[in-house]
Write a structure and sequence with these properties.
The complex is a heterotrimer of chains A (671), B (159) and C (195). Chain A has 671 residues and is of the alpha+beta class. Chain A is 62% helix and 12% strand. In chain A, helix 1 runs antiparallel to helix 6, helix 8 runs antiparallel to helix 9 and helix 9 runs antiparallel to helix 10. The longest helix of chain B is centred in the middle third of the chain and has 27 residues. Classes of the chains: A alpha+beta (671), B mainly alpha (159), C mainly alpha (195).
Chain lengths: 671, 159, 195
């Protein structure tokens, strides 16, 4: 099986090459037999990449240490589930996962479009094959997972302990599903640009795939935050590290696209902008992969050993050049009649929403790359850390939050003063009440106050939207409130699913703002010692150390400290915080000691205890952190995902016409 | 040895699968687009009217826009009703009648002013707008003035 | 600077940003023990920052911790000194930097003076965010500059696209010529949601 997998990689290379060549040839020469062959080649590519993946999995599960990859990332005593997930622990394995998901997506895209978008499909197939070809080529020549060692080590290095976590088992494939999802819209955009069929047709396929990509990107990011929070131990879930930023960029651009496409549907405007967003999402995903996977940023050592960075850079340059060429030669075809009746209109608010999303994306990209730029210009090493990103993004994020509340309230085309009054009264009241209440309770942090006021306002908007929607249905169709509510969402999934995503966003912002009240304590406790602290809500906490214990587990030696936690004199739980030294099957330590954070979760706050070190026999150095509202990050994320699912849920073809009516002044002429 | 043979066999199967369309016409998928389950034209207009109604109720449309849009889509819906009726009554007619019917069906009429009385009009006689039509067979839009064949399915457009 | 050197420099500088995620930086190739992967480097990464005491301490523990949140640990992580020393079991750099901070605090130095002393020894990379002077000011200006330019552009476009609001209403103010029967049929359809 392993050998078959190895061979399959090369057959996949052949198939992807064929698919690319024949796809473009068939498209340009309009020869049906070539196009059919290219489409079959994309199925075959998927089959062989899948075989290659199965082969690598087999090698990992069998612990065949003659393969460098298996020896580098697993050890004999690793639990099987982590042998399985070690597939994406290293560079070549994760490239194979990329290729696997990409070829799978391609096959699905080709299959679902077998009788749709026929004029685009030759180029879509060819473009996807070309991207797959790039990855398979990188796998074959740059970083081959099937590379053998000239000796067989008795045991492997083992899997990094930080990756031995359920979050890490699902987070990377999840994020990849999101990243790679941008490739399909990109391929459709390229096909539409080549054929100059830039009317609304290609966008419906693209919207669907962008949603899929957005959904996985969202859940992937949230899972990654969760992993960082419980596993890395620095007390937060987002550190603006380049890897995180790389996953955030396509998300921002996809989000911008999902909003601005509504303007194109209703008004036929923003066509150039939408194409730009679609291709940028993909190019940013590739750039992100280049930044992280190439090792350019993660580690000096792996970069020196690997040529993969250059492969990605080359691909990025080519893809960028092709895209710029295509867009610039097709500008004329993307002309649209743009007319706006009023600056106070839904259309205008979407423009500002896009501006902010792209502005945040720019700020994040700029901050991520700035150290490189600064060193090139001034030869001076600098750090661009969380304080920078927070300072820059907090105002932008708050403005975006405000627009989340404003946008849905404004009418299409133009809003009358009376309309504005009617729409804004309740939400503004909700916001002001929230802010005033918090001020009265004694909250003094200005950004947090603004954030919560806006959260109240946006919540008001969303509730009002549902309220009015239910009311309208009751009047129009004489339905009872429950039916009206259910049908409201079911009949207009895009709008009301979108509002549910907004609910998730509000919760996330509320949770982020909670971090302003985080409190940290540096604590050294002997067994039996007590530490007292006050949390941000004013509760008195008492922590009593039960001392340090040391014991061995399956593949590690553990040092643990138990703390009895009392809130306002009442015991509320026992917190266990650990350091783990992982060992291989011979008992030799592998990797640096890993943290296992002790977290006492709560709706109001998490008590987060990190064991920083042990002095002597029984004295533990710890950091105790009160992290307010972190729980809400995970649940806000779930609500966003649920909203995304509602929007994505397939609807019968004839029901899908949800743009409904068009407010275009006159039909766009396609001559 | 066995894996090599299995690999080779798989590769050959794949080659046959991929190259087959080059040698066998029947393996090619038909180029005619699948007929999408299109709602009756009246259905689309009714759907639009529902949303116009709903959006006014929820404050997404101003009253004046509501009036205009409602008029526009009402016109479309009514035109669709009439077309349906003429279709039903014309069903039993002779071949010549059927050709005319087919031709009429293609001519959707002006998007602003509704169906045209002149069956062969190229421009709207009320507002002068170019009258886009659609192919009777595959419903693709006919956008080129004077086109004689559908560019999507090749159906003859001349009556 | 050619591309190779540019990238090498890039990787070197940006490597300092990465969290101590050996997770992602795990090297190819079987290693017997990566436990001390960056240990030899640490002596070079830490540089003493010492000044003679000048008076009684003027900062309390909270102020000191806040200060440490603005100093970038030099062990190769993406964390500040406070977070690194209270998180990473094996980092030797952050406790050493912490000792320097404590010595300076008890020597009577103020927060800006301590930051300054660290910058003199390590350079600007010891700050968690780019300094707002010289070329690095661009880091701060560009995002807002770009946003400002974007707003200007959008407003410009909105003005150019601005059309009289009556356009849609003016085309055909009259309703269709629906007969009462047709109108009734249509109303019935619109007010029945049977999709």
């Amino acid at each position: 099986m392993i050998l078959i997998g190895e061979l399959s990689l090369w057959v996949a290379l052949l198939m992807a090459t064929w698919g690319t060549t024949v796809g473009f040839a068939g498209g340009f020469s309009r020869r049906a037999e070539l196009i059919a062959s290219a489409e079959r080649a994309s199925y075959a590519t998927f089959g062989f990449v899948a075989l290659a993946a199965v082969g690598l999995w087999t090698a990992l599960l069998r612990s065949d240490f003659s393969f460098r990859y298996v020896a580098s990332y697993t050890s004999a005593n690793l639990p099987s589930i982590y042998k399985f997930t070690a597939f994406w622990a290293g560079q070549s394995g994760s490239l194979l996962l990329w290729a696997f998901i990409l070829s799978g997506y391609s096959a699905i895209a080709v299959y679902t479009n077998r009788s749709r978008n026929r004029e685009l499909m030759p180029y879509v197939t060819a473009t996807l094959s070309a991207i797959t070809l790039f990855f398979v080529m990188t796998l074959c020549f740059g970083s081959n997972p099937y590379e053998r060692l000239d000796w067989i080590p008795p045991d492997g290095t083992g899997l990094n302990p930080q990756l031995q976590n359920p979050g890490m088992a699902i987070h990377p494939p999840n994020l990849y599903l999101g990243y790679i999802g941008t490739a399909i819209p990109f391929a459709f955009a390229i096909a539409a640009l080549i054929t100059r069929k830039l009317d609304a047709g290609w966008l419906s396929a693209v919207r669907r795939w962008t949603l899929i990509s957005w959904f996985f990107n969202t859940t992937g990011i949230i899972l990654g935050m969760w992993w960082a929070y419980v596993e890395l131990g620095w007390g937060g879930y987002w550190a603006w590290d380049p890897v995180e930023n790389a996953s955030f960029l396509p998300w921002l651009v996809n989000t911008a696209f999902l909003h601005s496409i509504m303007v194109q549907e209703k008004r036929g405007m923003l066509r150039k902008w939408n194409v730009t967003l679609v291709v940028s999402a993909f190019l940013l995903a590739i750039l992100g992969t280049f930044i992280t996977r190439s090792g350019v940023i993660s580690s000096v050592h792996s970069f020196a050993q690997s040529s993969v960075g250059y492969w990605f850079l080359g691909f990025l340059v080519i893809a960028f050049a092709v895209t710029v060429y295509l867009v610039s030669t097709r500008l004329h075809d993307l002309e649209s009649k743009a007319e706006l009746e009023s600056l106070v209109s839904r259309e205008a608010s979407f423009l500002f929403n896009n501006l902010l999303l792209v502005g945040i994306a720019f700020a994040v990209l700029w901050g991520t790359l700035f150290p490189i730029l600064s060193e090139a210009v001034t030869n001076n090493k600098i750090t661009v850390g969380p304080p920078f990103f927070n300072k820059v993004n907090i105002p932008l994020g708050l403005a975006l939050l405000a627009l989340t509340g404003i946008g849905p309230l404004i009418a299409w085309r133009r809003a009358s003063l009376e309309n504005l009054k009617r729409q804004f009264t309740a939400p503004v009241l909700a916001g002001v009440t929230t802010g005033a209440a918090l001020l009265a309770v004694g909250m003094r942090d200005v950004p947090a106050l603004i954030a919560y006021t806006l959260c109240g306002f946006v919540t008001g908007t969303i509730v009002q939207e549902f309220w009015k929607g239910v009311g309208a249905r009751r009047r129009m169709y004489k339905e009872n409130p429950v039916t009206a509510l259910l049908r409201l969402v079911a009949r207009n999934r895009r709008r009301y699913g979108g509002y549910i995503v907004h609910v998730g966003i509000v919760i996330l912002f509320a949770a982020f703002a909670g971090l302003a009240f985080k409190e940290e304590f540096d604590v050294t406790l002997k067994g039996g010692d007590t530490y007292e602290a006050t949390d941000p809500y004013g509760n008195q906490w008492r922590f009593v150390s039960q001392g340090v214990s040391r014991y061995e587990e399956l593949n590690r030696q553990t040092t643990a400290v138990l703390l009895d936690a009392y809130r306002n004199g009442k015991q509320v739980g026992v917190i266990k915080t650990e350091k783990r030294q992982y060992t291989d099957s011979r008992g030799v330590p592998t990797f640096q000691p890993a943290t296992e954070v002790g977290i006492m979760e709560g709706v109001r706050e998490d008590v987060y205890v990190v064991l920083a070190g042990v002095v002597g026999e029984d004295t533990a150095e710890m950091r105790i952190t009160f992290n307010p509202l972190v729980w809400w990050v995970w649940y806000g994320g779930m609500i966003m995902a649920a909203g995304g699912l509602i929007v994505m849920w397939p609807q019968a073809e004839r029901r899908r016409a949800q743009a409904g009516y068009s407010t275009v002044l006159q039909p766009a002429t396609h001559t | 040895m066995t894996p090599l043979i299995v690999g080779a066999v798989l590769a050959v199967i794949a080659l046959v699968f991929v190259l087959h369309p080059l040698f066998d016409d029947s393996a090619r998928p038909s180029r005619t687009p699948k007929k999408v389950d299109v709602e009756a034209p009246a259905g689309e207009a009714v759907q639009a009217l529902r949303e116009i109604e709903f959006d006014r109720e929820t404050g997404k449309l101003s009253d004046s826009d509501y009036g205009t849009l409602k008029a526009r889509y009402t016109r479309e819906a009514v035109a669709a009703f009439r077309e349906e009726e003429s279709e039903i009554s014309g069903d039993a007619g002779d071949a010549a009648e059927a050709v005319i019917l087919r031709y009429r069906k293609r001519q959707l009429g002006c998007s602003e002013c509704g169906p045209r009385p002149e069956a062969d009009a190229v421009y709207c006689s009320t507002c002068g707008r170019y009258l886009a039509a659609s192919c009777a067979k595959c419903h693709a839009a006919i956008t080129e003035i004077g086109a004689r064949f559908c560019r999507s399915c090749g159906e003859s457009l001349a009556a | 600077m050619d591309r190779r050197r540019f990238l090498a420099a890039a990787s070197a500088s940006v490597a300092l940003l990465a969290i101590p995620r050996r997770a992602r930086a795990q090297e190819e190739g079987p290693q017997v023990n990566t436990g001390a992967a960056n240990a030899p480097m640490e002596s070079e990464r830490y540089k003493p920052v010492q000044l003679a005491a000048k008076g009684p301490p003027i900062m309390d523990t909270n102020a000191r911790d806040a200060l440490e949140h603005h100093l970038h640990c030099q062990c190769g992580c993406n964390l500040d000194v406070y977070t690194c020393r209270t998180t990473d079991f094996s980092c030797e750099v952050s406790p050493a930097m912490h000792k320097d901070v404590m010595a300076l605090v008890s020597g009577g130095y103020s927060a800006p003076e301590i930051m300054n002393a660290f910058t003199v020894v390590y350079g600007d990379r010891v700050l968690m965010a780019p300094p707002s002077s010289g070329f690095d000011l661009a880091a701060w200006i560009a995002p807002f500059g770009a946003l400002g330019a974007g707003i200007a552009l959008v407003v410009l476009l909105l003005r150019r696209w601005h059309a009289p609001a009556v356009a849609l209403a003016a085309i055909h103010p009259v309703a269709g010529d629906a007969t009462p029967g047709e109108q009734a049929r249509l109303d019935a359809l619109v007010h029945r949601d049977d999709r």
